[in-house]
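Note to self: user wants both folds in one dump. Writing first protein now.
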Amino acid sequence: MRNLLIFITKYNAFFLFLIFEISSLLIYVKYNSFQKATFINSTNQVTGNLYAKADEFKGYLSLKDVNDRLAKENADLRNQLLSSKYVDTVAKHMVNDTIYKQQYEYIEAQVINNSINKRNNYLTISRGSKDGIAKGMGVISGAGVVGKVIYVGEHLSIVQSLLHKDSRFSAMLATNKEIGYLEWGDDLDPHKGLLVDVSNNAQPKIGEMVVTSELSLFPAGIALGKVSNLKTKGGGFFLNMEVALAVDFSKLEYVYVVINRFAPEQAGLEAQEKKDE
């Protein structure tokens, strides 16, 4: 306290000047309408900018919650699509929603690890067996096909990316439904794939959409990419073509795991078929 009094006494002239300066400014603004209006407008502008910055910072802090909520809502919407359902009646001509039953379900997940610059790339996602994830399930994003689940833990799962030498998905040209397989190219470009084994009868065009076929892990029509080059190495009796991939794997944050209710039955039947061969 003594030191504070000594400090004030030592600089009393400065503090008096400061008090008189502030008082004169207040009197000047208070009794002059133009200056008063200018001061209020300036104060409001400064305050408004501070509130805007504070709100922007608050919004940035809540981005994760917003993204999680949007991913959940997108999964719910995908579950309601007719492409996720199958018709459970022979009377297919009847227009009645009660004949549709769910075949595909979607579980949202966050990407917590991802690689794109190796020959064999993988993703780690924030869902596991406790969430209903199982080996062999397909994984997509809002843009298109991402890969398939290969390892499952209780809380996390590993996804074999489309950017993997062993990834191969049944695909088709969107226009004429000619079927082939999409795989990753040998040049390790994370933006390009190869559509192979397409019939010579197909007449693909640059820019044509390539989507999943009904023979894939996924509902038919999920984007894989667009034909970007028709002049790839020959495939004998089949056509091979370059595809610009729909998914930018370097920016993946959220994905959806596709649960196909018919997958276990199909796997069992196909395994039995192989035994009988």
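First done. Writing the second protein, which came from a different request thread.
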Amino acid sequence: MNVLWLQSGGCGGCTMSLLCADTVDFPRMLEAVGVHWLSHPALSLGERPIFDLFEDCIEGRVPLDLLVLEGAVLRGPDGTGGFHRLAGSDRSMADWLRQLAPVARHVAAVGTCAAFGGIAATQPNVTDACGLQYEDDQRGGLLGAAFRARDGLPVINIAGCPTHPGWVLDTFAALAAGRLAADDLDALGRPRFYADHLVHHGCTRNEYYEFKASAARPCEQGCLMEHMGCKGTQAHADCNIRLWNGLGSCTRGGHACVSCTEPGFQDPGHAFDRTPKLAGIPIGLPTDMPKAWFVALASLSKSATPRRVRVNAGSDHVTVPPAIRKTRLK
């Protein structure tokens, strides 16, 4: 599968994350899933001049199987794309993308910036940054809502800031094997194998969440939702199931989930480490949960919180261990 990977308005963090894939032989792993780099700013050898390669792809002399964008498209000023002209070219990245996308068999946005605008589109968004096919949560972006690649799919949004290397490699492998269809993408174009999960799933703090035993500082073990801004019950990703570097996740490191796979996460309207509340109740509630239910269950849970859970929630280590009870298999 010939892959052309371009970088636009971003930090390169998704490429850095990809290099942390769980393997001792990264090139061999890519080869094993059928990936051949036509070009990547950091990972390919650059065997040929990049603009010659672009023209060969556009004219069909070189098959373009997968066009990848990392980073947001910078459309400013005034729709010219002049804020990002491709080095060595008098043309904007936006212009090149408009020509390359229609000839690509698949098109993927790697990272939330490329998918929805992300950090690059933080208000007041002076560069007029957007995603390939979305502007925040609205269809459109650079290519337009009606765009479809030659495979018939819209842009595949591998959202995350940065993306988990497994999300990228699994998507590439599925595309190379012809096993990614429209039903495998969610309503925002994200691969469902990770977007059908919530960061909350598998979180090591779930017992504290169940009893609403909350942390007030990052060093404490309690649930980060009530006070520390955690959106793990709303964010679509499998971060606590598919661990980063095989070891951890944001919540396991004491940091609240900021829902970086979601459109608009960069502008929450409040500090990332604070939970906005109304009448003492968090405004952002778990996905699909009516507010009245949450209030009722939270009250019951807090009244039933074991002392062990309550004490440990405010500590940086297990202070009260679980009680030992005599057990018998019946």
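Dump finished. Worth passing along: The CA atoms of residues 64 and 104 lie 5 Å apart.
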